[in-house]
Amino acid sequence: MRELKTIIFDLGNVIIPFDFRIGYAALEGHVDIPAAEIPDRIRATGLVPELESGRINPRDFLNMFNSALGSQISYEEFCGIWSSIFLPETLVPDSLIETLKKKYRVMVLSNTNAIHFEQVWGAYPILRQFDHLILSHEVKALKPEPAIYAAALAEARAEPGECFFTDDIAAYVEGARQAGMQAEQFLGYEKLLGDLLARGVEII
Questions:
Q1: Interatomic CA distance for residues 58 and 43, integer angstroms
Q2: DSSP tag of 102
Q3: Are 26 and 78 in contact (CB under 8 A)?
Q4: Would the pTM of this model clear 0.90, i.e. be above it?
Q5: Residue 171 burial by CB count (10 A; 0-12/13-18/19+): exposed, middle or buried?
Q6: Hey, which of 29, 113, 167, 178 would disulfide with 10, CB 3.0 to 4.6 Å?
Q7: What is the pLDDT of residues 140-193, one digit of tens each?
């Protein structure tokens, strides 16, 4: 394995934990659909990938969402519900990013949307430590599409083989490997430390 120069993290359920069930429960009071059925109804609309790829803006998303689910949620209230999924404690401590930054370029590569990102940017100071953030709605591509990994590599200041990527979703890890990166699935902080140490990364 080549010596690493850049370490890239997924955002949701790697840096910041989330639980969609919180949002579904909050939505239940606004739609005539049981919370257990809401995920399938949202998935059937196909709207979330459109929002996360930046092909529709948040207000248009909400208009189509309200129409599809028979709701009348205001934009401000929807943003609160949509972002209620995030849990307070990060999965990776600030101290790890601080340590890595002393020697490596550190980045985020995330499938996200403008509503969620505005919320997490304000709520999680750890994000300000990263050198660059590649966000799907800004680069108009979603993992595991090759274009989003290309966007990350364009900012990595390293060759693909000198980059390490971790993500909780195996298919997105494989996408990074196909792009030439070293990559491992995130299965918890201790495993992440092991994956980095195995590559000679200086943690202390």
A1: 17
A2: T
A3: no
A4: yes
A5: exposed
A6: 167
A7: 999 999 999 999 999 999 999 999 999 999 999 999 999 999 999 999 999 999
